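the two lines:
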Amino acid sequence: KAGVTQTPRYLIKTRGQQVTLSCSPISGHRSVSWYQQTPGQGLQFLFEYFSETQRNKGNFPGRFSGRQFSNSRSEMNVSTLELGDSALYLCASSLGDYSYEQYFGPGTRLTVT
Amino acid sequence: KQEVTQIPAALSVPEGENLVLNCSFTDSAIYNLQWFRQDPGKGLTSLLLIQSSQREQTSGRLNASLDKSSGRSTLYIAASQPGDSATYLCAVQGAQKLVFGQGTRLTINP
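prediction for all of em together
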């Protein structure tokens, strides 16, 4: 069974631009969560989608948004990029119930210059 | 608000030693606890998942325990190898999200 895939793996953007990251979950998984990892803040929860609906949201500004499609693939969008948005963005998928194991993708490394 | 703490932040040991990594959390209302491994610049690899009703889980040379009432978990690594060098993260699953510790950076010296 294929694991969680994320595209692109690396991205360089300029301040003020916007970016879209993609995550394809493991087949059959209906929940996709997004996390931001930085050296200073560690891993922080962005949001979670389940069956095309945002089920939970972390404490990030409205510039960070996401969506989930009917095939459970998810996209995350960041508008008006700031230098502080430079980070490793990780997505995780699970079957959906909170007791299930979370499986993480390889991440997208975003650098904002 | 759930807080997860991992001690020590870094650990360096010679190959072959047995070692213990510690994780503590403040809110015992959790669904489960996961231990992950992260190599530099890479994603997270799940090592062990312990459900809230369980006391421990084992996989190969790894053994993780959970004491929910005291808010503690340990990851025991037996007969450490240089390939075990990585950052180890514990995370607790609450009603909304995984909350992570800051990790323990482990170095195994040949």
